Amino acid sequence: MEQNTAILPQAGADRWQDWVLLLKPRVVSLVVFTGYIGLFMAPGHLHPVLAFTAILCIAVAAGAAGSLNMWYERDIDALMHRTRNRPIPAGRIDAGSALAFGVALSVASVVVMGLATNLCAATVLAISIAFYVLIYTIWLKRRTPQNIVIGGAAGAFPPLIGWAAVTGSVDMLPLLLFGIIFFWTPPHFWSLSLYACKDYGRAGVPMLPVVAGARETRRQIFGYTLVLGVVAVLPWLLGYSGRIYGISASVLSLGFVVFSWLVLNDRQDEAGVSLSGDKPARLNFRYSLAYLAAMFVALAADKLVG
Amino acid sequence: MVRRQRGRNIALGLVLASLALLFFAITMVKIGHMG
Question: Which of A49, A57, A109, A112 to mutate to test the interface with B (most CBs of B within 10 A)?
C-alpha cells in the first residue's frame, strides 16, 4: 500500500504531548491493567522493583507498537476524520522520527524485560510487538474484514507477559485470559464501528460494517459474544478460579449477551442502517468496557478472598 | 522558545535519571542486595 509522503512536518512544531499521543495512552492504560492482572494471578513471587519494571516494559512495548502503527498508517489516518489530527498526519512529527522512536522503544522494552525478569517474558513481549505491527498493521488490517479479530489477538498478550514475568513460563490460566480478551475485542470494537467508523470506507480499510454491512456486523457481534460467554466461565469450570469469579463471569457475560441481542434486534431499514441512532450499539460498547474491567477485577478478588 | 527548550531538557533529564535509578534498582535486586 502506498504511503502518504505529501505531508511535510513543520520544523519544531511538535510538543512533548505529541510524543505521548504517539504511544496511544488509552490503549496503554488497558494493556497495563490486563498485564498487571496476569502478573498478580501468577503463582510465586516477583520483587516489587522487578514487577514494576515488568509492567513498565509492557506499557512501553504497547506504546512502541502504537507508535509503529501510527507510522505505517499515516496515509489512511490523514483521510479519516477521527485520526487526521494525529501527530504524523497533522505534520507535527515526521514519519521517520516516529519510526525511530517506535523501534528504539520496542528494542529497549524487550531487552530490559529480559534483564529484569526472564527470557520467556521477553520473548512473548517481542512476539506481541511483532504480531501487532507486522501481522496486524502491515499484513492483514487492509486485507481482511476480520482484521479486528487478528488485532484482538495482539491486544490479548499482556496477561501472558505478566504471568511469564513471574513464572518464566506460560500456563493454562493466562491462555484462558488471552482467550477472553481475544473474543471480547470483536464485539467491543464492532459495536463502536457501527456508529463511529463510517469513514473507514473512504480510507480503503475493509472494516466489517463497510464490507459486509451493518446487519452482518450485528450478527457477528452476537456470535462472538456467545463464544465469549463460554470462554469467560472456563477458568471457573476448569478449576483455575473460585465461585466469586464464576458467578461474576456468568452474570456479566449474560448481561453482555443481552446487550448484544439488543444490538442484533435494533430497529433497522432494508440496508441494515439503524433507525434508533445506533443506541443499542452505543450501550453495548460502553458495557463491553465495564465488562472486561469487572471480569478481571472479579478474578483478582477471587484470588484475594479464596 | 528558549524557555520551552529548557523545559524539554529538564524533562528529558528527569526521564533519563529515573531510568538510571531503575537500572540501579534492578541490578541491586538481581545481585541480592535489595529485599
Answer: A49
